[in-house]
Write a structure and sequence with these properties.
EC 2.6.1.- (chains A, B); homodimer; binds pyridoxal-5'-phosphate; alpha/beta; Aspartate Aminotransferase, domain 1; seven-stranded mixed beta sheet; 38% helix; Aspartate Aminotransferase, domain 2; pyridoxal phosphate binding (chains A, B); NHTrfase_class1_PyrdxlP-BS (chains A, B)
């Protein structure tokens, strides 16, 4: 029956017939724990340790006990949650969104991102995607029959946008740009200057831009987090996808939201039930509580900062290793190209440091000499530090064996 | 920006610029209650009244209080739940599914159905869909660029499959059949004979069959519920989509599951994160409890039976109205063609009986002279009876005004 599938789908393997491991997929946490292996590869804060905020627990427990949470909410999402989100959009994103016309709740931003792109992509449409980038961005375009046009982000520019690299790749079929801001895996917070250049390019060439802001907070060192849709002329051509999974720490809740102007949203509302379906009823109640009182995210931010500094301190200065100081969130993007490929190092670290990290090649061509470390994993910072030290020591040993003495 | 969308998407309106009302969408329950209107139009048992089984509440409250439910589960679903489902598949569906290779949990069966079809459909592929049928079946094919080939189900055959009607519509582009069994809106439980004929047709013509068993229980009057994938030669070409939303009453949980043979599942596993994303973590724990102890569904079944008989008693014999006795679940499919179109009657009942039901035209061409009533709504059977009586009286009055005296 596989021969009856589209070409795009035929190449996706789920691991039933191979040893392929997808980024972020196919690990069983209990079997890893038995082997004493730490998983620093899932972008899920404090995974796998309990870390639901108490007031969110309370709100959900109440809703569940009342017994009505077994029913559907409106397919576009709980009205109160949409109203609460519209306030947040005004305060944090400088966006004036009508909760009844511009916001749709989705069961996570993975399906949200897919759905946001879907109406626009026909066979052969070209979609520009910064490389490295979240793997689903590439996969989604392929599934829809579009053509991925990777645009390299370069370490020497601190992974900011170089608009010439976009202009060089423009064709008459270019239809869309998909941007993750801040970027996963590089943690880059795109500067106002980067985004203004991108906006001008999008407007001049009449392009749609999908922006994934799953990692929009926290950003570090006083950086400005600019929402592209708030720039002049961009509201009408930008669809922004947000999530409660990362900075709010609610990955398992599966609550995300899409923000777009009325005409695009009208189509989304009209096809929401068919493609994504309604979002979990009690999760949305938990999300309301989380938005209403988001003090706890400050503690998360402080912990993420400590963890960032831990990574920089432990891995900084190791021969053959270069860590760009993370600009946001809880990931690190580490250049290990002098020591080996991302695949090789990932494998090496699993065996020698008992830590699983992500191989950079999952995030695009540009990522081949990199690994991604999720220092936001594990609630216990000592345990995390221990895992990072094991990584550091294993890399020092490798550099030593290879006779590498500087970066 | 709408001009940049695919043709299929451009026609879907969400109601922001029109008065279009989609089946099952865009009603606010609180505003209806203020107007004294009962909603018998959402396929959600006992909606909107509290009806989560106590032991399911207990399991979820425990999981949430433990605090770890904020984390992702494995994208293909909680392992324990998959194991529990494999037992159910053996006991109830006569299917031998490996929980590690043949089952995938999805956040509801709406996205599950979409996802199940997606890898197979390219532009121009023809998909046979019984008419009337669940509206998403048509919409999904259109969104994917396929061609919908409706195959009429006829009241005179009790909506069973007449394989000649499929054979007449076969072309070299026919790729797939999408079957809802039992059917929504007609409640038809397809007989072994219907399904054997369909299986033979699918095998002879090398077709994929997607079967939606959201309504697989309860079925009434000792009917046999046959799972197509269990018939000889069908496992390899059938993808079955199940849900906990209907017979198990857990709509708001968003837990459904796809069952397929290894090769198809390998592709699903490989693209799951990108298209559907993981399923809610605590809902899956609630679903395990529901599967472990499903005694409560017997009470639901008894209530559905009483409700069915209520509909037949109240609407049976009204001039110009014909109710086929529902074969399963909690819906009724009522022929009102002598009194007016489904659109007209739906409107008329909203104004004159203060009840919202679904217009049959949403379910396909064949449905134009019908309405769908969800007698499974409302926990209080007296309130339901009252609503049904208002429908009955309003229809009697209409028949009277029109001078119609028999069916
Ligand atoms: C950049 C980015 N976007 C979106 C997602 C999906 O998050 P969710 O579906 O939990 O909202 C992830 C998850 O890793 C991510 O890294
Ligand atoms: C026939 C049928 N299939 C699937 C669904 C979707 O159910 P869910 O997404 O809640 O699993 C519905 C909901 O009304 C339905 O009627």
């Amino acid at each position: 029956m596989k021969t009856k599938m589209t070409e795009a789908f035929r190449k996706y393997e789920g691991g039933l017939f191979s040893e392929v491991t997808k980024a972020d997929v196919s690990v069983s946490i209990s079997s890893l724990e038995k082997e004493g292996i730490d998983l620093l590869a899932w972008a899920d804060p404090f995974y796998p340790d309990p870390s639901t905020p108490p007031h969110v627990i309370e709100a959900m427990v109440k809703a569940i006990k009342e017994g009505g949470a077994n029913h559907y909410t409106h397919p576009i999402g709980n009205e109160e949650l949409r109203i609460r989100i519209s306030k947040k959009l005004k305060e944090y994103n400088n966006i004036d969104a009508n909760p009844h016309r511009n916001i749709m709740i989705t069961p996570g931003s993975d399906s949200g991102l897919y759905f946001a792109m879907l109406p626009f992509i026909s066979s052969g449409d070209e979609v520009m995607i910064p490389d490295p980038s979240y793997p689903n961005n590439f996969q989604n375009v392929e599934i829809m029959g579009g053509k991925v046009v990777p645009v390299p982000l370069k370490e020497e520019y601190h992974y900011q946008i170089n608009i010439n690299d976009f202009e060089d790749r423009l064709t008459s079929r270019t239809k869309m740009i998909v941007l993750t801001n801040p970027n996963n895996p590089t943690t880059t917070v795109f500067t106002r200057r980067s985004l203004e250049a991108l906006a001008q390019f999008a407007i001049e060439n009449d392009l749609i831009v999908i922006v994934d802001q799953a990692f929009e907070f926290p950003v570090f060192d006083g950086r400005e987090m600019v929402t592209l849709a708030s720039l002049e002329g961009m509201w009408e051509r930008t669809v922004t996808v947000f999530s409660t999974s990362k900075g709010m720490g609610l990955s398992g809740f599966r609550v995300a939201y899409i923000v777009a102007e009325d005409h695009i949203m009208d189509t989304y509302y009209g096809s929401a039930v068919s493609v994504v379906g309604a979002t979990n009823t009690f999760s949305q109640i938990g999300a309301i509580a989380a938005f209403d009182n988001d003090e706890y995210t400050k503690e998360m931010e402080a912990s993420f900062l400590r963890r960032r500094d831990m990574v920089c301190k432990i891995l900084g200065g190791i021969p053959g290793v270069h860590v760009e100081k993370p600009e946001s969130g809880f990931l690190s993007w580490v250049n290990i190209s002098k020591l080996g490929s991302g695949e090789f190092i990932t494998d090496y670290l699993k065996r020698n440091a008992k830590v699983i990290v992500n191989s950079g090649g999952h995030y695009g061509e540009q990522g081949k000499g990199y690994i991604r470390i999720v220092q936001g994993a594990l609630a216990d910072e000592e345990r995390l530090e221990n895992a990072l030290r094991r990584i550091g020591n294993a890399l020092i040993e490798l550099a030593d064996n290879k006779g590498i003495t500087n970066f």
